Amino acid sequence: MKKEDCFYLGKIVKKYSFKGELLIKLDTDQPELYEHLDAVFIELNNSFIPFFIESSQLHRSNLLRVQFEDVTSEADADALIKSEVYLPLDLLPKLEGNKFYFHEIIGFKMEDKNYGTVGTIVGVNDTTAQALFEVENNGKQILIPMNDEFILEVNRDKKTVTVDTPEGLIDLYL
Q1: How many CB atoms lie within 10 A of CB 142?
Q2: Which tens digit of pLDDT belongs to each residue from 29-45?
Q3: Which run of H or E residues covers position 78?
């Protein structure tokens, strides 16, 4: 299993019991979808190792309390703390309409209702207060706010995202 075939589910943040139980801080708006998993991949030394889940349950809102097979002591659990947890991409719930996963739209063409073709989406910057589409146009980078009011259509068949940006926004970059 390679990283590009997986999505980030969360991070192991601390031990829960002396029997090797751990708490995973889930990076999701729908933690209940991941309450009854059979296995996860944990990144250890740049490798993805499958860990099978003996039992799990939600703990508070976005923590998943897990007992992995073969993790039966505090020492076993200590070795996994701060490790990142992943699942295969095919386990992501399918999104429809104008909802999308960031990785899904990389390579899509961006069209603007008034401007026309803006360029190709090469990334998403979600480190700012407002997530931004990173669009490449003839070697120039254009940043478009990822605002629900701007996004008119996500067409998975044509691999396009159609937006309606404020007048002059795209011209600022070109």
Answers
A1: 22
A2: 788 989 999 999 999 98
A3: helix 74-78
